[in-house]
Amino acid sequence: MEYHNKLVLAPMVRVGTLPFRLLAAQYGADITYGEEIIDHKFLKCERRVNEYIGSTDFVEKGTDNVVFRTCHQERNQVVFQMGTSDAVRALNAAKIVCKDVAAVDINMGCPKSFSVSGGMGAALLAKPELIHDILTTLKRNLDVPVTCKIRLLKSSQDTVELARRIEKTGVSALAVHGRKVADRPRDPAKWSEIADVVAALSIPVIANGDVFEHDDFQRIKSATGASSVMVARGALWNASVFSPGGKLQWEDVKREYVRKSILWDNDIKSTKHTLKEIIMRYSCLELPEGKAVIKSETLADLAKLYGEEKYYQFVSDNRSLVNGSR
Ligand code: FNR
């Protein structure tokens, strides 16, 4: 895995499942992060090859609950992001998946209370010793690259100091979301403070925050000095933001996402959640499309809504054929 000059799909809970990652990759993302998965939950999972779908699934033991689905096609670009507060637990969870992914990343930026109260996400930013312990343990024991994603600390000097400590653990790259823990998504990302981290480190820094148009990739690169850029909301709202030829119509992107959800038999809740996020950006959920998405109970319902019944039927009738041609 190479971290220089990359366009990166950010980790996004309930959004970054297999169809969305493949969608972003199709439009030009080089590296695609999965949604954050908590180590406790992943430790209850076992690996199953799903011959019906053509995927590799990590399923909660004793259930059919797929916690993480991946496939051969994304093997060299998918990053498994984990929430953790303990080095040994993180390692044991990572060992379950590391042969099927390109890298393992630790979330050190999530400000949500479920994360922070469990000592995970942004709570780690205040515990550099624990960060060191987690990252060195993973680094020593895994054959895949290990990275982490942080937010900015109170002062730029503090962020740089932490970033230097992280670099010393031997991680392959560091993603920096240019907001502080207390910042809201509408607050502008502080690209200049990402630049301070880039200037202080030798490892690749992945700059993250407020990239919404393809031109923004060059703008954030110039402003920060980072050669790689990570995008969350800009990709959620239109995954073709990665496309060098410019964004496609969001209607077309949305339909392609529905097709990929059908092909990979995505969890209906995740597909509905992502569609609702896209619809809310451009329209509103009270209009007929939004209402119909909310009412949909199956991927077949969504296929009908988006005029993809024939594709749905074809995929259902020809699973093995479709898998063979992928
Ligand atoms: C996120 N973000 C996030 N970060 C992370 O490390 N793990 C995660 O699972 C999530 N989940 C998530 C879900 C959704 C819907 C959004 C919008 C964001 C934060 C995200 O990766 C990113 O750091 C910020 O959104 C800033 O980037 P943008 O949106 O300005 O490009």
3D architecture notes:
This protein is of the alpha/beta class. It folds into two domains: 7-242, Aldolase class I (TIM Barrel, Alpha-Beta Barrel), CATH 3.20.20.70; 250-325, no CATH class. It is 44% helix and 18% strand. It contains 15 helices and twelve strands. The strands form two sheets. An eight-stranded parallel beta barrel has the order 1-2-7-8-9-10-11-12, surrounded by six helices. α3 runs parallel beside α5 (128-141) and α6 (156-168) crosses α7 (191-200). The longest helix has 15 residues, at 268-282. It is globular, with a radius of gyration of 19 Å. The two termini are 23 Å apart. The model has no long low-confidence stretch (mean pLDDT 96). The structure holds ligand FNR. Ligand FNR binds next to α9.
Report the CATH superfamily of the largest domain: Aldolase class I
Query: Biggest sheet, strands in spatial order?
Result: 1-2-7-8-9-10-11-12
Let me know the average pLDDT: 96
The major beta sheet can be summarized as: 8 strands, parallel, barrel
Q: How much helicity do the residues have? A: 40-55%
Classify the fold: give the CATH topology of the largest domain.
TIM Barrel
Shape: globular
Give the DSSP E fraction (strand runs of 2 or more residues).
Answer: 15-25%
SSE string, helix = H, strand = E?
A: EHEEHEEEEHEHHEHEHEHEHHHHHHH
Keywords:
eight-stranded parallel β-barrel, 326 residues, 2 domains, 15 helices, alpha/beta, binds ligand FNR, single chain, three-stranded antiparallel beta sheet, 12 strands, TIM Barrel
